[in-house]
Design goal:
By secondary structure, the chain is mostly beta strands. It has 1 helix and 44 strands.
């Protein structure tokens, strides 16, 4: 799919601050002076691949799992801190190392493997503890092997590392006994045949169970542990090297849904909804949105995008939704308020493909990239792409006396700040039927009569609005400043029982 395939803000210690987005097959840097985007150096990747970023040792690392790992220092996209032998679909900073997940090593895919960097060197450069090549010279009845052009020492190959010979008669795994020079290693076992083969050597990795279709989909960090999410399982890795599987067997279908906030990592699962984990326990938190979450389109279960707003709200773009009762939503975003653990919904009317937080002059903003190759700075201004911003809020059923009592709803009094264009819709809940002992809920929204043009105003129900409860919907679309509903009071009369 075309569009924006990754977006991030890069800030370094020299004061450079750049918004970077991957468009088609290249990173682009936003120019705030011209309002345009500039191609980032000579970087060309495979077209239309989702891309992830991480800032570490004052550099921005960029990966997509197919092309080589890139490192941007604010001036050039360099190879000093990366290694072409290792690629990863996902990247995460954890404590003092970088971690790559779902990796390819010397051209071979390891979907359940995590590879990690060495500790940064004193000169603030990074090595990955790996070397590979196609010219490993072996001699029969000798444990010494050579590879012209290799940098075994510079790449920090260690005694005890595994050397994997991938082709030829000596193919197999061996252990490094000594590193003799940049191009020569001695193994613990002598080789049987004289040959020249492909190989890789290094041990900065661990496998997260087996490659059984349950591949790594991304990372989180919480409780001082690295959270590793696969399709159907979640694991946690500690700085002491301990790998443990979470008690609940569940993972994620959408790498871009994974977000960290405070003590939790949040993510989406197609049959369970929105979940969060502290590394040990996993809990479903989206049950109040069950009818929405269960109707996420099959085509979108791998495309759910998560992000954080105001260090409080966890947002998930889930696409177009039609609920079981026929309600339709376009480009829907569901929002979890972590302060009171409530849900709401919103839409920007755009198909979001990636998102990021951006620290600018001490203030955090949110940017999203779309499938039509646009980048939006959201939650700022009073228009969306030059058009009115739409607002909608739906309440839960409100029962003034209880679900077993009837009332006549008469009016609603609003205390509202700057909301002249707001309209109020309603549905009556448990309305008496002409059939004895049967009640029904309105299937369609109806408008209340009123005008929100003053700070204190009333909307009126039609005569005969008798029911146990009511659901309200507030809608607004304008280019005005945001409005505030301070409170509303619901009036009724003629209380009665069924």
């Amino acid at each position: 799919m075309a569009g924006i395939h990754g977006i991030t803000r890069y800030n370094n210690k020299s004061g450079k601050s750049e918004l970077i987005a991957v468009w088609k097959n290249a990173p682009m840097i936003y120019n705030p002076t011209t309002g345009g985007w500039n191609k980032a150096g000579s970087v060309w990747n495979t077209i239309n691949l989702d891309t992830t970023f991480e800032t570490f040792i004052d550099c921005l690392f960029m990966t997509n799992g197919t092309d080589k790992l890139w490192c941007y220092n604010g001036t050039t996209w360099e190879s000093q801190n990366v290694n072409p032998s290792i690629k990863g679909k996902y990247i995460k900073k954890y404590n003092t190392r970088l971690y790559l997940g779902n990796v390819t090593i010397a051209g071979v895919s390891y979907p359940s493997r995590v590879w990690y960097s060495d500790l940064p060197r004193a000169d603030y450069t990074l090595r990955w503890g790996i070397e590979s090549g196609t010219n490993l010279v072996q001699t029969a009845d000798s444990a010494t092997v050579t590879s012209t052009g290799a940098k075994f020492k510079d790449n920090n190959i260690k005694v005890g590392d595994k050397m994997t010979i991938t082709t030829g008669e000596n193919a197999g795994e061996y252990i490094v006994q000594s590193i003799n020079s940049e191009t020569q290693i001695t193994l613990t076992d002598k080789l049987t045949h004289t040959a020249t083969s492909s190989y890789w050597v290094g041990s900065n990795y661990f496998d997260v169970e087996t490659d059984d279709g349950d591949e790594i989909k991304g990372f989180g960090v919480n409780s001082n542990e690295l959270i590793i999410l696969k399709n159907s399982s979640t694991h946690r890795f500690s700085s002491t090297g301990t790998l443990r599987k979470s008690r609940t067997t569940i993972g994620t279908s959408s790498p871009k849904s994974i977000v960290d906030l405070d003590d939790y990592t949040y993510f989406y699962h197609p049959s369970r909804g929105i979940l969060r984990t502290d590394g040990s326990n996993i809990a479903v938190i989206s049950n109040p949105l069950y009818d929405i979450i269960k109707n996420v389109a099959t085509a979108n279960v791998g495309k759910v995008v998560g992000w954080i707003e105001d260090n409080r709200y966890v947002c998930f773009y889930i696409g177009d939704i039609t609920t079981d009762d026929g309600e339709s939503y376009t480009d829907l975003i569901v929002v979890f308020d972590t302060s009171n653990e409530t849900w709401s919904t919103k839409t920007y009317g755009i198909e979001i493909q990636c998102a990021t937080q951006s620290l600018e002059s001490g203030i955090i903003y949110n940017y999203v990239g779309t499938t039509d190759s646009k980048v939006y700075k959201i939650n700022t201004g009073t228009t969306m792409d030059g058009s009115s911003i739409h607002f909608g809020l739906e309440t839960h059923p409100i029962f003034p006396v209880g679900s077993s009592s009837l009332v006549d709803f008469t009016r609603i009094r609003f205390y509202i700040d700057d909301g002249p264009d707001m309209q109020v819709m309603y549905k009556l809940v448990y309305r008496p039927s002409t059939i004895k002992d049967q009640w029904y809920t309105d299937s369609t929204w109806k408008a209340l009569t009123g005008n929100a043009g003053s700070p204190k105003t009333e909307f009126v129900f039609p005569e005969g609005s008798r029911a146990s409860g009511v659901i309200l919907k507030f809608i607004e679309s304008s280019t005005q400043e945001s409005f505030l509903i301070e409170k509303f009071e619901l009036y009724y009369k003629n209380i009665g029982n069924y």
